Amino acid sequence: MGIAAGRNYSGPWRATPGRYLGLGLVRLYQLTLSPLIGSHCRHLPTCSEYAYEAVARHGLWSGGWLSVFRVGRCGPFGTSGIDNVPEALPARHRWWAPWRLLRLGRPAVRTPE
Hints:
- The protein is mostly helical.
- The chain has a domain at 42-105.
- Helices cover 42% and strands 4% of the residues.
- It has helices at residues 17-37, 47-73, and strands at 43-44, 81-82.
- The protein has a two-stranded parallel ribbon with strand order 1-2.
- Helix 2 links the parallel strand 1 and strand 2 (81-82).
- Helix 1 crosses helix 2 (47-73).
- It is found in: Cell membrane.
């Protein structure tokens, strides 16, 4: 088993220009702004690692929207804990309806017994 070159997703992904652009922007953020802002993410993996993996797995459009919604969940009144990128997008997902991705990654709400 090989050693990963970095903390980002190293699994298989389709190489497209959009993915390269998205991954480049996330990596640029990780190398420049992230050290200045500090590590304050309440989720695991961090928001930038999540964005990198989401764009690599699902492309620039869907992965970008997943990343935006994840950053929105990371605010002071948001969620915390382990929030992995979904392996596959739900069948009801359409490119023109990114709001359907909003519920992915949210923890299940428990009803009191």
